[in-house]
Amino acid sequence: MVKQEFKAESKRLLEMMINSIYTQREIFLRELISNASDAIDKIYYKALTDDNIAFNAADYFVKITANKEARTLTIADTGIGMTEEELENNLGVIAKSGSLAFKKENESKDGHNIIGQFGVGFYAAFMVADRVTVTSRALGSGQAFKWESEGADGYTIEPAEKAAVGTEIVLHIKPNAEEDNYDEFLEEYRLRAIVKKYSDFIRYPIKMDVSGQRPKEGAAEGETPEFEAYTEEQTINSMVPIWRKNKNELTDADYEAFYHEKRYGFDKPLKHIHISADGAVVYRAILYVPESPPFDYYTKEYEKGLELYSNGVLIMDKCADLLPDYFSFVKGMVDSEDLSLNISREMLQHDRQLTLIAKNIKNKIKSTLLGLLKDERERYETFYKAFGRQLKFGVYNDFGVNKDVLQDLLLFHSSKENKLVSLDEYVARMPEDQKFIYYATGGSIERIEKLPQTELVADKGYEILYFTDDIDEFAIKAIMTYKEKAFKSVSSGDLGIEPDADEKQEAEEPSSKALFEQMQTLLSGKVTKVKASKRLKSHPVCLTSEGELSIEMEKILSAMPNNEGIQAEKVLEINVNHPVFQSLKEAAEKDSEKLGLYTQLLYNQALLIEGLPIQDPVAFTNDICKVMV
What we know:
By secondary structure, this protein is an alpha+beta fold. It is built from 19 helices and 22 strands. Strands 5-4-3-6-2-1-7-8 form an eight-stranded mixed β-sheet, covered by helices on one side. A six-stranded mixed β-sheet has the order 15-14-17-16-19-18, with helices on both faces. A hairpin with a 6-residue loop joins strand 3 and strand 4. Helix 7 crosses helix 8, helix 17 packs antiparallel against helix 18 and helix 18 packs across helix 19. It is elongated and about 120 Å long.
C-alpha cells in the first residue's frame, strides 16, 4: 500500500475546498447524502436499459450511524459502488465528478436527475474529519476497495472486504478545539436536524438508529408505569415533497401544515400558489401570501427570499433573486433541476434559468393577487392592510418602473364609497365631464373630510381618493396617469373646474387684485401668491401649492434627516364669497395695520388646517386677542 498524491494542481487547492468554498460546516452531511442518492440513482438508470438488473426501491437507502466512543460518523449507501479505478479517478482527482460524466451519458431518462456534478462535495467531509475512510464495492464486482486520506497529504487505496454492493464512508471526527465544537456532529438530534433542513426530500430513505423512552409492558392498571430505553431504526426524511404531488391530491390543510412545518410564519396563510412548470425552464414551487407581516417586516433586518432546492436538496435558505422587493412578503420554496449552481452549491450563477423562474413567479403572484381582489375582496383587503404599503413603495421605488405591475393592486379610501376602492373602480364610474382623478392627503380620513380644499370637487359630485399613508402621494406621482386620466390633488393650483360667473367677476375686480398684492407683500417669503379661491365654498381660507412638491410631501420630507429647508410653493387662497373677504377689503381701505393683523391670522389659520407648525404661537395668540378687544 503506497500513499499517493492527489492529482490536483496543489495542496492549496484541497485546502481551499475544505476551508473556503462552504460557509457552514454542517453542509458536509448534505453533500455526502447527495452523493449517496446519486449512487442509488445510477443503479436505477442502469436498470432502465439492463434487464439483468432489477430495481426494487425497498432495497435502496442511505444509513447514518454515529459512534461517540470511537468519534466516527458513518454514511453508508446501497448504491452502485466504485471500482478501484473509479475510487482513483473520482476521489483521487479533485473536481472530477463521476456523477457529471454519468449524467451526460444518461441525459433525460424518466425524470430522475443526478445531483452531484462538481466532484468537490465529498471533500467537505474534511471540514469536520481529520481522517476519511471510504470502503466501496461496485455493482457486478466481488472485490471491494478501501480509500483513505487524512487530507491534503494524499491518500491510499487497498483491497478490502465488504459483503454488499455500495459505499460506506467513515468520518473520524476532529477533537474539539477552543472555538470549535465538533461533538455536535455525533449527536443524534443535531444530525436529524441537518437532514431535515437540507436533505428531507431526497427520494430515498435516510435511515438512522433513533433512541427513546417507552413504558414497560405489564404494568397493572392504576400503577405508574416504568420506562425503558430503546433504540430502533427509523427513516428520518420525508422523501416525497409536497410540491411533487399532484394538486388534486392535496387539501388546504396540507398546504397550511407545510407552511407551519417550514416555519414560514405563525399566522394562517391567506392564499397558497402551487406551480408546476414544464416549459422553457422546469421548476416546481409552493408560494404563500401571509395574513400578517412578521414583526421585523418593515425593518432593515428583514431578509426576503424563497427557499431554493435543486432536486429536493436545499441550496439556499433565502434566495432573494427569486422575488422582487415589492413582493418580498411572499414565503415559500422553489425546486428546479435546471439551475446553474456555483461550485459549492450554496450560491447561484445569475443565468437565464434563474431570470425566467423569477419572472414567472412575479407574474403568478400578481395574477393571484388580482384574483383575490376580484373574487375574495374581504381577504384581499386583509392582505392589503398588512402589505399595501409595500406595494405602494414598489410603485414609487426605481422612479416608477414597476407601476404597470402594481397599479391595479392599489386600494385607497373613497369619499363616495366610504371604503377602499381600486383605481379601476374609480375610473369606471367617473362622469364624462370629469377630467382628473382627484385625491386629498391628510393624516386620517376624518381630517381629510374636513379639509376646505375638498369643497368644490365634492360640490361637483366628483369622487375623491383619500391618501392617509405618507407614501401614497409619492406613489401616485410615479404613476402619473391611469387609463389616460391624470391625477390631481384637491390642493393643487388648478383643479380644472371653472368657477361660477359671480365668483370670477369678484376675483377679477381691480380692488380685489390690489388687496391680494398687499397681502402677498405682507406674507413675503411665506407664500408665493395670494389669490381668490375657485375651490372654497363655506370656508374663508386655505393653502394650496404650485409645482410638483405638495404641502403634504413637504411635511413628510422635512421630517426626514438632512432635508431641512424643503418647501412647497404655497399659495394662500381667499374665499371672495365669505364675510371675511369683506372685512379684508374694509381694512385695506381704512386701516393698513388691521389688514396686516387679518392677513397674519388667516395665514396661521391656513397653516393649522394643513397641520403645519405656526412659526410664532405667542404672536398668533396675541393677534387673536387683538381681534377680540
